[in-house]
Amino acid sequence: MVGHFTRCWLLAPLALAVGCLTPAGYDRGVDGGGSGAAGTGGVGAMAGSTGAGGGGRAGTAGQAGTTGTAGTAGLTGVAGHGGTGGTLAPTGTAGTSGGAAGTSGGAAGTGGLPPGTVLYMDDFETDTASAMATGWLEGDTATGLGTWSVVSDGTKVLQGAATGSDFTVDVGGNVAWTDYTFQVDVKVISGSSWEVGVYGRFALGTDKANFYEAYMDDSGGVKLRVKKDGSTTDLGTKSKATTAPTLNTTYTFKLDMHGGNIAIYVNGMVRVMVTDPTLTAGGIGVIVSNGTAEFDNVVVTK
User: Could you tell me the domains of the chain?
Assistant: First the structure.
């Protein structure tokens, strides 16, 4: 059955990791350039000179004749036979525009930080490639459902390779967490009829483990289930997406749990939302079946 969990759990309360990730998505504005200097104003037009003798009346300074206006547009005065119109003043040079605007902040991360106080962050960059991720435990080492290790794919990521249709899982976090949002970037790199997702409020119960199980399949369908003391209950299902997910594409998967309100988001869009009071506390896990998937930029906030 899909999502069947191991009989052998090694989860112990894990130490809280703080500040180990600085994901993309912080935007910092850069100051704009200073204002350009104002242009120098144009020099006023020279008044027309006094008209030479004759029958006409000499043009007055700055105003040639009775109708010509000196200096306004360089018009020649018509009255006063010798009166000369004012010289057209050159146009003042316009001031330069303000400095170039500051560049925008860094490009946003795939999903950005969810709101709230950060409880835990992990981008696996300080881990050793080909080794287990620090602070994480394989949940099914005795059942052979899959393998987990840190690999390099441009950056370091946590990779899970499932051997079949049952979920293989890697668990982390703190079993004392209650209300929180768990977000992770997920990329399936190979597989057929694959399923990928997360566990929330994961803790050991009287029979195996208790957890909320949220996952997406290769059609884009999303499902939420709860498992307690060996009994699994379907809580909500969203049929396949208009556009099916594709291999080697990163999707931001988020499971939000506050009180009995449980919701699944994919790339910021709510896909399933239910109310269920079954589980109240527990850690986190990442899961995959029928394929190989990479997980990165783990963030838990409250």
Answer: 32-102 (no CATH), 118-301 (2.60.120.560)
